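Protein folds are increasingly written down as discrete tokens. With that in mind, we are printing a sequence and the tokens encoding its fold.
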Amino acid sequence: MIRTTIASFLLATAVAFPSFAQDMKPIREVEVTVDTAGITNPQAAAYWGTLQDDLKASILTKVAPSDDEAAYVIKIRIDDLSLSNGFQEKLGLGDTTITGNVLVQDDKNHVGDDAYDLTVDVEAAKPLLPAGYDFTAADADTKVYYSAMVNAFADGVVKRLK
């Protein structure tokens, strides 16, 4: 059920952000790996369990896909995940984040390669939450919150492609 809900949300996001794909580097492939051994919090590991597939899907809804061998390949390695609930966030005691290393690779000649670390947190996800959503009143571990965090990370990657 979560995958169905997330897939629906990602599809809606694709419709909402058609301008991302314009004037952008063509992308041939997106690879996402999550260092699950590095996640010490079992609650966070369970919560972020489908992050690999969901992040890849979110990015692919925002880029210009291409079969051209000269197109770019995005490789993401998620290094750290943390999870807190809305109450902890409101008190300043929480820290929900996704942190990873992003490599945008020009497979043809590597002239356009780019590598950087990216971290998104609650502040980055807030604009992607539905109007009226109060993350401080509900636990942060909801499908809506999860989707906003995944899309915030994907947006961070896509913005660097222009």
Summary: The two ends are 34 Å apart (CA to CA).
